[in-house]
TrEMBL record:
Pfam families: NDK. This is Nucleoside diphosphate kinase. One of its GO terms (biological process) is UTP biosynthetic process. GO terms for cellular component: cytoplasm. It comes from Goekera deserti.
Length: 138
């Protein structure tokens, strides 16, 4: 990784995989200039899901979030590039797809906050933690 590059964990969530949107998401992030470093299709255990979303433990939507994210295969990716974390969050759009700007992944392709297609790390600390959780050998 070059000195200016940064890595982010991106997930195409189970709704995105089920809807056949893997190609669309990967195409958008590659077109932006982000580089794929790792990719794996997997179904999460509740334990991994609860660790990944630990910051949301205790919130009213937590149980539903874990059920949703473990409900089918997802595509886990590590992407790399200058300001990759911020760059992917901008491509993804706001958490609530109805509020997400048109032109973003969520703004163009989703309607419900609980089924918003993608995840992207939200800080360098989150990215390091999430990449270690999903790809411990990276
Ligand atoms: P993510 O972590 O999945 O990339 O999404 P995010 O940063 O945009 O949003 P975050 O606040 O981290 O929330 C994680 C996921 O929880 C679900 N959520 N539901 N019902 C609700 O009010 C609510 N709030 C959040 C969403 O699916 C969100 O992506
Ligand atoms: Mg988040």
């Amino acid at each position: 990784m070059s000195a200016t590059a940064e890595r982010s964990l991106v997930l195409v969530k189970p709704d995105g995989v089920a809807r056949g949107l893997v190609g669309e998401v990967v195409s958008r992030l590659e077109a932006k200039g982000l580089r794929l470093v790792a990719a794996e299709l997997r179904t999460l255990t509740a334990e991994v899901a609860e660790t990944h979303y630990a910051e949301h433990q205790g919130k009213p939507f937590f149980a539903g979030l874990v059920e949703f994210i473990t409900g089918g295969p997802l595509l886990a990716l590590v992407v790399e590039g200058p300001r990759a974390i911020e760059a992917f969050r901008a491509l993804a759009g706001a958490t609530d797809p109805v509020k997400a700007a048109p032109g973003t992944i969520r703004g163009d392709l989703a309607l419900e906050v609980g089924e918003n297609i993608v995840h992207g790390s939200d800080s360098p600390e989150s990215a390091a933690r999430e990449i270690a959780l999903f790809f411990p050998n990276l």
